[in-house]
Each structure stands twice: as structure tokens, then as C-alpha cells.
Design goal:
Length: 376
Amino acid sequence: MNKLNDKILGFFLTEKTSLAKWERAGILSREIAPYNLLAKHFKKIYLFTYDGPEELVYQKYLQPNIEIVYKRWRMRAKDYRWLLPFLNWKKIRACDFWKTNQLKARAALIAKIIKPKGKLIVRTGYTQSLFQIQQKGRADRLLVGWEKIAYRLADMILVTSAGDRKYLNERYRINPEKIKIIANYIDTDKFAPRPEEKYARRVVYSGKIEKQKNLENLIEALAGTKVALDIIGGAMDETSQKYQEQLTKLAEKLKVEVTFSGRKPNDELPAILNKYHLYILPSWYEGMPKSLLEAMSVGLACIGTNVEGTREIIKDETTGCLSETSVDGLRKNILELIDDYPRQKRLGQEAREFVVENFSLKTQINKEIEIYENLI
């Protein structure tokens, strides 16, 4: 019996985000997939976005009972994020649930304040204050204050990893029953092994180009190995552009063949990844790395660093290989695995089975549906 067929869900994109921005980033199909599945359970879903009527061109990709609620008024996004719930009050009031895509959605918190009976689900793909601590050794006070308010108002908090759940329990003294793990999902039908001819002695990384990803150590680890590196991803801002330039100079200095292919639409990634035997995620720290799950779902042998988030996915010598973050640690794992095709095949098969069983889109949506039903 469907307990939600008379219920309405209001879904808030991250502030200043829109469907158009998702499309430009190549992630539109990936990001709307869960809501098309959720729509089969709800009477209606309102999708609150921060761009104007041009957003309506994306209606054709959505289920008929998902309505795009766009910005109808000429105003700055930073003003609209506060006024959205008042300007769209009839739709806000009609909702039984509100859900954020990331913590940064003030409008959802305001909706909860002005209609306390509605259920607020705060979802975070990563916990921002924890990332700041990992980056800078401390979290901004303003951000911590903002998180306290959001988590206090929330009826349920969704995180993607056990590490984030533990952090929230310890820092904010939140009842563990109020925090549920809904991991990043993968469309395992799309991200599936294909009988492609694969590159020899080339490894691949896909994701953001930023210091967190420890790409300089990866490039140094490849020096003198005659193993090439392909980086799928592009600079998102001036800081990451400078970092990419530094990596390019480092590769030239060390005579390591590194190719930057730029960002690719998520729909194109399965075919690209299938051309490789080996994927590497050398990060200093992680939340729940979706790029790693995608590579595992394709059946690649994966090397990830032994950090929280990554080690929740990779079980050493079972679903992949765990490495130290150091140059020597990365080089050792790469050289031991790069030409060992039987081992690559075994690790890739185990990784694929693990992702299908634990991280498929259907599996995660079923968990989320159960949460909504228990909140009724």
C-alpha cells in the first residue's frame, strides 16, 4: 500500500542553483533521476529552482506530476532565497514534506518555521563544517551556527556516510535516530561494464580539480613508471584553474603524460570509463565519492586512499585497493596492479557486485520512501 499517494513533496535546489546549471555541468539526468522515481509515490512534487521561466524547457525530462516552480520576479538570487517561501506561499503551504538538496536552502527552513506541521528533511551530500575542518583545521562560526539551526529544525537528517553521521552526533549532540544514511546512488544500468577495447598502462581519474583530490601526489607517483594519466573534469573556478595549471607544469617537469579532457556529461561517462582497466581516487579526504562509485559500477579495478568516506566503499583487496596518500604509497599500488589483469578483473567484478547491491538508485530510493512513510 502506498502511504504517500495523497502527499506533496517540495524539493529545494541548492541556493543559486538551477536545472540549467545542472545541464551545463553535465549532471542533469543524474540529479533528476531520483525525483522521477519519487514522483511515482507522491501525489505531486514541487521543484523549487532559482532561475526564471527558461527552466520550463526541462519539464519534458520530468514526470507529469513534478512541477517546476521558477523565479517569476526580477530580483537577485540572494534576495530570492529569502523571499521564495512567501512569494510561493500557496505551494509551500500545500506541501506535506520539504527536502533540501544540500544544507544551503534557507527557503526550506523558513517554510518549516511558518508551517511547523510540515516535515523538513535536510539532506547533505557532504557536511560543510567537517570539510572546512579537514581543509583549514577549523570551521567558520557562522557556518556552525547555520548548521545548528538547520539540524534543530529538521525532522530528519540525511547524510551520505557513516563518518558524517558520527560527526553530527558528536558535534551537535543530535539523536542518532534523527540521522539516516542515504548513500549516493548510482544508475547501475547506465554505469555497467561493456566489452570495450581498453587502454594499456593508462589510469583514469574523474572528478573535481582541487587540492582535496591530491592530484599532485598522483602525478609524482607516476614519474618514471611509463604509466599515463587521464583526468576527466575541468576547472570550476579561478582557484581550480590555477591548480590545473600547476598540475600541468608538474607533469611537464616530471615527464608524466597527463591529459585533461574537461568536464563530460554524466551520460557520456560510462562509455569513457569502460576504456580503462584502472581508476584512481587519491584524495586527502572524502565524503561519499560518487565518481568512485561510478567507476566501481562500470567494473574498473579501483585504487582509493585510506581515508574516511573512501574506506566505507573500498574493502582492501576485495572491492578495490586502499593506498596511503603519499607518493610512495600511490606508486606502490599502481605498479602492483597496472599489469596484473587477472587481479584487475577480480577486483572489478567484486566492485560491480558491491555497488549494485548497496548503491543502486532503486535501493537508495526505497530507503528514502521508508523514511517519508515513517514521518507521516
